[in-house]
Design goal:
This protein has about 260 residues and is α/β, with parallel strands linked by helices. It contains 11 helices and 7 strands. The structure holds S-adenosylmethionine.
Length: about 260
């Protein structure tokens, strides 16, 4: 069974509060550029494309042809229909692409939704040309404290709602992810931390946090008490900022795993 249903309500909430502005993605632009080495005319398959934030960024930044594959009709509905972006129904285990037809695969915050990661890795191997990379944007639970070197507060939901880590702890670990892809013939090339940033204030996060609870898999796992405690933590931080404390920069540190 899928973790959550990306129905119309979820898609609207995702669109309202989860999309990162283009300005906040500059570090991702640099990181993807370095590893994909994009050239106009290349085809990138965006698997689990959601509302199309990255599909449109890749088209605009690099002039790529993007095939945005997304199983949820409600999410697909939000993907901009522009030349250079082809929007298709499908999922990671059954990609609507011909053999050896893509020059790269992008999976942002998707692998924890894929029930058979080995099967998906085999399917990705089928559609990629030899030597093409798989780029995974993800928070791997074994990389965060207390198991790994990364700080929990590098991710906003963990910081304000620490119990979200309970569900995130069940997501595929880095080693398990690499093993699933290795079975399909990919090796781990790089792992690096990349930050997205958000120019809005904590007060803005507080104003939208009820919608965020609907739009984020880990936030949906919170009990009402856990959610209210986190909201109070956030409210106190907003008051602190209003009392003159230096505003904290907003954003998240996730990782880019490159397999080839
Ligand atoms: C957290 S959203 C991420 C959307 C987008 N990649 C982004 O970063 O903005 C997860 C997406 O994965 C999709 N998804 C769920 N199961 C999937 C599967 N088996 N294969 C491909 N996509 C899947 C969902 O429908 C949803 O749109």
């Amino acid at each position: 069974m899928a973790r959550i249903s990306y129905d119309e309500g979820m898609a609207a909430a995702f669109k309202a509060v989860r999309e990162i502005s283009r300005d906040g993605l500059s570090e991702w632009r640099d990181a993807v550029g370095r590893h994909l080495r994009p050239a106009p005319g290349m085809t990138l398959v965006d698997i689990g494309a959601g509302t199309g934030v990255f599909a449109s960024a890749f088209r605009d930044w690099f002039g790529l042809r993007v095939v945005a594959v997304e199983p949820s009709a409600a999410m697909r509905e939000h993907i901009p229909r522009t030349p250079g972006i082809e929007v298709l129904a499908g999922d990671a285990g059954a990609l609507p692409l011909a053999d050896a037809s893509a020059d790269g695969a992008w999976l942002s915050l998707v692998i924890h939704h894929i029930l058979d990661l080995e099967g998906a890795a085999r399917e990705i191997r089928r559609v990629l040309r030899p030597g093409a990379p798989v780029l995974v944007r993800q928070a791997f639970p074994d990389r965060y404290e207390p198991f790994g070197p990364l700080r929990m507060d590098g991710i906003e939901t963990f910081r304000w709602f620490p119990e979200t880590a309970r569900l995130a702890g069940t997501f595929p670990a880095l080693e398990a992810t690499c093993a699933a892809f290795a079975a399909a013939g990919f090796h781990r090339e790089t792992l690096e931390q990349v930050r997205d940033s958000n120019a809005t204030s904590l007060a803005d996060l507080l104003a939208r946090v009820d919608t965020l609870r609907q739009a984020d898999t880990t936030m949906r796992s919170l009990t009402d008490d856990e959610f209210l405690r986190g909201k109070e933590r956030l409210r106190r931080a907003v008051r602190h900022a209003e009392a003159g404390a230096a505003p904290e920069p907003r954003g998240n540190w996730l990782e880019l795993l490159v397999l080839r």
